User: What shape does this take?
Amino acid sequence: MSDLDTTANADTFPGRSQPMESQLLCLLTHITHLRLEDDGRKETIARNPQHNHHHDPHHDELELGEGSSKDLKHYLVNAVDNHTDSFKHPKFYRMISSLLASQGRIDITLALAQKLGHVHYTISYYLSQEQYTKACEVLVAESSNVEGEKSGIWYEFAPTIMQHCPFALVTGMVRFRLPAKDTYLADATMGCSDSYFDDDGLPPDRLVRALDPEKLLPAFVQYDPSTNENKSHEHQVISLLESCIEVDGNRSKVVHNYYVSLLAKYDVARLRAFLESTA
Assistant: This one.
C-alpha cells in the first residue's frame, strides 16, 4: 500500500479527513484486487477441460463469472461518483487503471476513463487496437465536452484517424462549434474577415467552427479521397476549407494557398470560379 500512502497526502483530498479518505481508498483498492483475483480464478477453472460442473462446489459461482465482472464495473463506476476527487488524482487513478489493465479488464478501464472524461486514454487505446472508427466516435462524441483551449486533442489524433475514416472525422470537425470568443477566431490576427467582429473589434456571441484549419494541415495532408468510408467521391478537405473561407471568413494565407493547391489538383473548374470570385 506504499503507493497509495504516497498518494494520500494533505493536499490530495481538500475538505475531507485525510485518515478516513486514505482508509476508504485502501479498502477500495483491496476490494478491487480481491474481486479481480476471484474473477481470474473462476475463469481459470472454467477453461480447465477436466472441470466437471457436477462435482465442483463452485459451479454456481462459475456460472456467475460474467455477472461478477459486470458487478465490479458497476461497483467502480459508483465509487467514482462517491469519490470523484480521489479518482481524478493522477497517482490513484493510474494505480487503479494499472491494476485493472494487468488483469486484462480493459473494458472496466475504459469505462472508468470515459466516466472521468479521460478522452485521451480512451482514444489512444482504440488507436493502439486499430479500432479507428471507435476512436473517431469517441473524439467526435466528447468534443462537446472539451473546452476550446483543450481542443488540441483534435490536432493530436486527427492525422491518424483521417487516414481511416475521413468522412466521419470531417463531419465531426464541421459540427464542433463553440462561441466565437472561445475559439481561435477570437484572435483577429488569424486573418478573419471584418464581418466577424462587432464595432468594438470583438467576435460576436455566436457558435462558430472551433478548430483552427492551419493546425489541422498535418491531418489534411494525410487525406486520400479514395478512403472515404461512405463511398462518396466528394473531397472532404476541399469542402471543409471552402466552408472555412466562404462561411467563416478565414483569410489565412496558409489556408488559402493550401485550398488553391487542392483545387488545382482535384477540381480545376472550381479553382477558376474561386479565383474569379476573389479577383
Summary: The chain is about 60% helix and 0% strand. The CA atoms of residues 225 and 233 lie 7 Å apart.
